[in-house]
Amino acid sequence: MRIRLNLECPRCGGPLFLKETRNSIDIACARCGLRVSWELSKAARRALRVIDGSLVFDWNSVIDELYIELAINAQ
Ligand SMILES: [Zn+2]
Q1: Parallel, antiparallel, or unpaired for β 48-51 and 24-29?
Q2: Dihedrals φ, ψ of 55, to 5°?
Q3: Ligand 1 center to 50 CA (angstroms)
Q4: For the chain, which residues make up each domain, given as ranges?
């Protein structure tokens, strides 16, 4: 699965894509190749929340944290 994000690469301003594989989630720039990758188990630990008694996977917080890591790597 590959999804174009509505975020720009912090290094070059190119389009960022979210890719989910069997074991990982990564965000990569299609132009300069800047990339961060998390194991799915790590992402799940960060993203799972209990809302009204149900376990919810919060994608937004994962994307936010991946993007912050990407911005740090771009320095
Ligand atoms: Zn880039």
Answers
A1: unpaired
A2: -80, 125
A3: 35
A4: 2-73
CA of 43 to the centre of ligand 1 (A): 22
Only one residue has tokens 């990982």, namely 24
pLDDT tens profile 14-71? 999 999 888 999 999 999 999 999 998 888 888 898 999 999 988 888 899 999 999 9
Check: CB of residue 66 under 8 Å from CB of residue 36: yes
Distance 7 CA to ligand 1 centre (A): 11
Structure-block tokens of residue 7: 């975020």
pTM: 0.79
**Rounded-to-integer distance, Cα 28 and Cα 45, Å:** 21
